[in-house]
Amino acid sequence: MTSNEAPGRPAGRYRRAPARRFPRWAGVLTGVAVLLVGLGASVTAYQNWGSPPVSADHTSFEPDGRSLRISFDVVRDDPSRSAVCVLRARSADGDESGRREVLIPPGESPARHTSTLLTSKPPVMGEVFGCSHDVPEYLTRGSTVEPDSEVPPSG
Q: Residue 155 — very low, low, confident or very high, per pLDDT cuts 50/70/90?
């Protein structure tokens, strides 16, 4: 053996290198598919759990026997669109004693609104359950209910 020759492997001592089970393009294609699924999941998560287009926080509530007057601030990403907020009152035992959907007309953002809920039990607290730009048709088709008028309790 000369000094320029590399020694070979002794025959029978090492196994042959295993052949690839999958072609290289299959691995690349799988990687691209995983990235696309991850991107899709990220977009869906952002749309579902990102900042909502309409939000509200109650600022005060005043219980009065069988009614509750609640004030709340509404913040919208697009103040030119109408919104609806669901308000609810709770009694001392924790039951929901009144609920009301309030139409928030287009206007400034943030904006303070006040509404009165009639309740089935004496209320002890009020809250804004949630808001949305998906306004039900019955709130928009010539409704004569003013935002601060009294509506009988549901339930």
A: very low
